[in-house]
Amino acid sequence: MTDEARLSYGDPITAPFWQGAEQHRLLIQCCRTCGAHQFYPRPFCLNCQSDLVEWVEAAGTATVYSLTTVRLPVSPEFNPPYRVAVVQLDEGPRMLTNIIGGECRIGDCVRVQWRERNGAPPLPVFEPVASEPGHNDGQTA
Amino acid sequence: MGKGSGEGVYIAGVAETPLGEVYDHSEFSMVAVAAREALAEAGMTLRDVDALFVNYMGEEGSVQLGEYLGIHPRYADSSDLGGAAFEAFVHHAMVAINASRCEVALIAFASRQRTRRGRRHVHPADPLSLTAQFDNPYGPAMPISYYALVAARHMYEYGTSSEQLAEVAVAARRWAQLNPKAWSRDPLTVEDVLSSKMVSDPLHRLDCCLITDGGGVVILTNAARARNAAKRSIRVLGAGEGHTHWHLSQMPDLTISPGVISSREAFGMAGVTPSDVDLVEPYDAFTISVIMHLEDLGFCKKGEGGAFVAAGRLGPGGALPCMTSGGGLSYNHPGALGILLLVEAVRQLRRECGPRQVPNAQIAVAHGMGGFFSVASTVVLARE
User: B134 — contact with chain A (CB < 8 Å)?
Assistant: First the structure.
């Protein structure tokens, strides 16, 4: 993939997210009017309808909101078993992701890591943080 | 309840298409067979139909099917609301008939997903779509992993168990054993479900619906036309729909579906409550679905669905008969079950169901679902 192609990955609204991914920075939107964070990006704030949304770097820490282990063949690029999760970023928004690394349960703390890909920008995945579980359990989204 | 007996909207005819493995038909010819059968029940022919409601019958589905059946509708709807489209079509048709924009509505669907081996576990998303960017790279088995994520969260928050999920599959199978048209009729135990292969934790293979060919047709009309039906017409007391998300990451709460919205609308219009309902046909694509639906429709409190479905409550002779055909888990799942939920509910209210008949069935609910708990649609039906 050429630099130009990588820089135009995604669509015009999501491109900044993928440009951040190239630098291993997890970018989400923050509303300058109400302070709410959101992911995936939109050209307005879902919470207060303001147009004043800007990109900010997320802390990169999250809580596992739900978790499944995929055990059937989905397509040739995936080798089961592997873990698919919904994580809740400390800033609030949720993402679908993979869990890598050690043992992990719902409610556990995880931190972003980056999976290099051919033909696409690095993909954010999450691995368990060794410390104590669950600074929040995702119920206060 | 509802309007006076001189008004209202009725289901005047229902039919299944050929079911199971269908080698001697196309999807359109399957619908044609069922349409003529359903219209015969209504005392009508294709010439009487002036409104067409279709999902998953190809691009501009109502247009293609209209041509095939020789129908030139004055009201048409091919809204893609997934498997929830058909209960939503009852809602749309009801509104249109009440507004005199049409008189005879034909709702139709057929699929040969089994014999065409059309089922894939990857979402066929446009590479520029949000799904291709933010979901598919993680390899969720579509749709099983999304339902698994809902089930896992429900278990985490409420202590719902794999045994309780399995009870749903067992109840469906017990009904299927009473239905000669059901695909899976062998005896099934909770242990059988738990020992079936895990596909996406916590869902086992037998927590998942069948993949079969099938479909159906439903005819709606006004009170005056319904009086001429060959069989008893069934009143549509209420209908509602709603949707909340497409991507699972955007679902407001993984344990609450838009069934809360659709059932509030449908029960409100019908003027009935869950305690008035004699049987439920919930869209049982997965065992967790039924537990969520019963909670969200108000048959039990949120979080209590696992305990509610235990001890045979949903099965033959149980306090709340559900999935009385055998459902998507054991009777038929053609990829969009919603139409067949209506067919079974109407037959139960007509008391045509032989060994699986729910005694004295007076009020039934058909509850459709589409996507990944994305869309919900609820219909309340009554025998008058």
Answer: yes
